[in-house]
């Protein structure tokens, strides 16, 4: 099998010749482990294209550090959100929100959606995607809705707006939705294999809102965003953390082909059975909390081998996802990659 064929087989619950892998070269891990991590990433490789172009992030500017030497940076993004960062390479927390008052939804200066690709630019993009596909599955990204909502408006206010079904929040979501649709349209035009969207809807024990609220507010908007992807047979991946079992079937209703869940909330065999019945493939992301930060290398290796077996990965329907965050002891990082390479040998 080629790498691209392997991913398509996994998505369709067909047997694969070896465990598929996707690696995200997270900057946080590189800031901590440097060249030795980069060497491991290159040695392992994955099925989602070449990693040859992955390089170490540039050094952090001196202005990003407090007088005591601790990392402490602030950035304002193009949406007008002011972020505070405390760990290099890790997503920060919003400390300033551009939409404090829902009466400003229409006048809020949101960035324009990505323009459609046309002419020579489109042809160049199609050639680049075709070259990527020669080496692996082409997966592009598209903006989510919930996380963008609570980055431009306070989290607690968004939840309150959802609870009272404030139509102004719906209008704000519709404006964000234009960005999701624009990214989806570009992926279709380029001939991409898949698009990944991410929104975390759960705590470790329950949804952050009722299933009815999720279905009335988010589901129809995702259906609109995904309609073109489904018609073009572009596969849809969805990253969602938290306990989302009550709406798991809804993802399949929306045409989602694969989920990237918070796997520690599930028993692997039960997750496999549930998702197999729904036709949802699963990205297996080993626990980045207790296991990778506080486990032993032997426990990491055993987890990778046991979980891919429990998920019947060689029968299709799942693959390993590797991402190294700050706080992972180096022996655990080595164990994660070496176990993966052992499975792919």
Describe the structure.
- With 345 residues, this protein is α/β, with parallel strands linked by helices.
- The chain has one domain (3-344): TIM Barrel, CATH 3.20.20.
- Helix content is 45%, strand content 12%.
- Strands 1-10-9-8-7-6-5 form a seven-stranded parallel β-sheet.
- Helix 3 packs parallel to helix 14 (330-344), helix 7 (167-190) runs parallel beside helix 9 and helix 13 packs parallel to helix 14.
What is the compact description of this entry?
By secondary structure, the protein is α/β, with parallel strands linked by helices.
Sheet with most strands: 7 strands, parallel
Do you know the CATH topology?
TIM Barrel
Compute the CA-based radius of gyration.
20 Å
Number of E strands? 10
What sequence of helices (H) and strands (E) makes up the elements? HEHHEEEHEHHHEHHEHEHEHHEH
Distance, first to last CA:
14 Å
Structural class: alpha/beta
The total tally of domains equals 1
- CATH architecture verdict: Alpha-Beta Barrel
Strand content: 5-15%
| Percent of residues in helices | 40-55%
CATH top level assignment: Alpha Beta
Can you tell me the overall shape? globular
Task: Flag low-confidence runs.
Answer: none
Oligomer category: single chain
Strands of the widest sheet, in order across it, are 1-10-9-8-7-6-5
């Amino acid at each position: 099998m080629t790498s691209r064929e392997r991913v398509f087989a996994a998505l369709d619950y067909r047997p694969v010749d070896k465990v598929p892998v996707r690696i995200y070269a997270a900057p946080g891990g590189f800031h901590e482990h440097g060249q030795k991590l980069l060497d491991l990433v290159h040695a392992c490789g994955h099925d989602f294209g070449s990693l040859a172009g992955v390089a170490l992030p540039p050094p952090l500017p001196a202005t990003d550090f407090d007088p005591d030497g601790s990392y402490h940076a602030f950035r304002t993004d193009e949406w007008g959100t002011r972020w505070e960062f405390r760990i290099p390479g890790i997503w920060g927390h919003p400390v300033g929100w551009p939409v404090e008052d829902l009466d400003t939804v229409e006048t809020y200066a949101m960035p324009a959606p990505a323009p459609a690709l046309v002419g020579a630019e489109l042809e160049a993009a199609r050639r680049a995607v075709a070259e990527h596909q020669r080496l692996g599955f082409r997966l592009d990204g598209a903006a989510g809705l919930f996380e963008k909502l609570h980055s431009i408006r306070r989290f607690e206010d968004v939840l309150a707006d959802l609870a009272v079904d404030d139509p102004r929040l719906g209008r704000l979501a519709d404006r964000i939705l234009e960005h999701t649709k624009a990214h989806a349209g570009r992926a279709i035009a380029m001939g991409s294999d898949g698009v990944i969207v991410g929104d975390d809807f759960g705590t470790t024990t329950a949804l952050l809102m009722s299933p009815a609220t999720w279905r009335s507010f988010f589901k129809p908007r995702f259906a609109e965003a995904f309609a073109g992807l489904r018609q073009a047979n572009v596969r849809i991946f969805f990253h969602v953390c938290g306990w989302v079992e009550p709406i798991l079937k809804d993802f399949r209703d929306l045409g989602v082909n694969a989920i990237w869940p918070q796997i520690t909330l599930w028993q692997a065999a039960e997750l496999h059975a549930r998702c197999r019945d729904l036709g949802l493939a699963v990205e297996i992301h080993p626990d980045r909390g207790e296991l990778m930060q506080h486990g032993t290398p032997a426990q990491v290796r055993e987890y990778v081998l046991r979980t891919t077996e429990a998920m019947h990965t060689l029968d299709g329907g799942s693959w390993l996802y590797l991402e190294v965050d700050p706080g992972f002891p180096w022996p655990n990082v080595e164990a994660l990659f070496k176990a993966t390479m052992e499975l792919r040998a």
